[in-house]
Design a protein that fits this description.
Elements: H1 3-11, E1 28-34, H2 38-49, E2 56-62, H3 69-78, E3 85-87, H4 95-107, E4 114-118, E5 123-124, H5 128-136, E6 145-154, E7 187-190, H6 191-199, H7 208-218, E8 222-234, H8 247-257, H9 259-274, H10 282-296, H11 299-306, H12 316-328
Parallel strand pairs: 1-2, 1-4, 2-3, 6-8
Antiparallel strand pairs: 4-7, 5-8, 6-7
Helix pairs in contact: 2-3, 6-7, 9-10, 10-11
């Protein structure tokens, strides 16, 4: 698919055979970055076609695969996905964050109302998009909103292997500065949120899902989840980022990594938000200023920053570890 074809798809995608479900309702842009994904990719593609909300368009790019994944994607674009697949030109290995934000920027040129990130190895249940559209339609279109669905962890053969822990604290800012609780594969954004995220350039070293959650919550947009598991969330040896299914295991993993990787991401986020504070309300700017003061001040300044309301992680133990690391500087 060349750029001229992509441009035609953006303006008026041709009607062609596709899923049996109708294409009524707002368009959802699915954003898929592939990398050596041929083993599981076919199941994910079939789950798009099975969506009860049939008005979707797939934006995809390959991030330097050495397998048959790109050929499978091209074949899908000529078959079940005909007329609704837009392939971005490959320009080397961008890694996930840059790859997904490149896809988001391209999708914003189209007419989609909502934007859903997708991993290549999961399986979407049929109502995944329908539930997201229903939820986001309840929010004013001018207010940034991020909806996230539940997920069912499964093994490589799609057998259930447990349950993801429920959130103990609601998502929001400033908690988003110190913990990401929303996987990208579960996220769907409205256009206002997508435009806000596009305007706020991410720092190096972040993850696309954490940055999306952080930006929308820093603007005090709507961040809310559904109570249904709409994704079979595959866990296998090739996961780029897996997910411990117990809070204590997450804490142990963080302790093993040590404070330096965490603080590097934390201060990168703070600096990137500070660079675009005009996008955010006064209360966000005040919190960021207090945190920045702590970076240059002494112990007293760091203690003041820790008393910012809501600067906590999901459990008291995780919060305690963060506070110790922050005080150490």
């Amino acid at each position: 698919m060349d750029l001229e074809y992509n441009a035609r798809c953006l303006s008026s995608p041709p009607e062609a055979p596709g899923p049996t479900h109708g294409r009524a309702g707002p368009c959802v842009a699915i954003l898929l970055s592939t990398f050596n994904g041929e083993r599981y990719l076919g199941e994910q593609l079939r789950s798009y076609v099975a969506q009860t909300h049939g008005n979707w368009r797939l934006y995809w790019r390959d991030d330097g695969s050495a397998d048959r994944g790109p050929d499978m994607m091209a074949a899908f674009g000529q078959d079940a996905g005909y007329g609704r697949c837009i392939r971005l030109p490959e320009d080397g290995n961008l890694r996930p964050t840059r790859s997904f934000f490149t896809l988001l920027s391209m999708a914003l040129l189209g007419d989609a109302s909502f934007f859903a990130f997708s991993d290549q190895d999961d399986v979407w249940l049929p109502d995944k998009l329908a539930h997201a559209v229903e939820a986001l339609n309840q929010v004013s279109s001018g207010r940034p909103a991020l909806y996230f669905c539940g997920r069912m962890p499964v093994d490589q053969s799609l057998r259930p292997i447990g349950r993801c822990p429920a959130l103990r604290r609601p998502p929001g800012f400033p908690a988003a500065l110190i913990q990401n609780v929303i996987p990208g594969c579960c996220m769907t954004l409205n256009r206002a949120a997508a435009e806000l995220i596009s305007a706020a350039g991410p720092p190096d070293g972040t993850w696309h899902d954490w940055w999306c959650y952080l930006v929308v919550s820093a603007q005090y947009g709507v961040v809310f989840g559904g109570d249904r598991s709409d994704i079979l969330y595959r866990q296998h040896g090739g996961n780029l980022v897996g997910e411990p299914l117990r809070f204590w295991r997450r804490g142990v993993a963080a302790m093993r990594r040590g404070r330096h990787p965490f603080l590097r991401i934390f201060w990168g986020h703070v600096g990137a938000l500070q660079a675009c504070t005009g996008l955010f309300p006064d209360r966000t700017r005040t919190m960021l200023a207090t945190i920045v003061e702590a970076a240059h001040g002494g112990l007293a300044a760091r203690v003041r920053a820790l008393f910012i309301p809501g600067l906590v992680r999901q459990t008291w133990m995780e919060t305690l570890v963060f506070r110790l690391w922050f005080l150490l500087g």
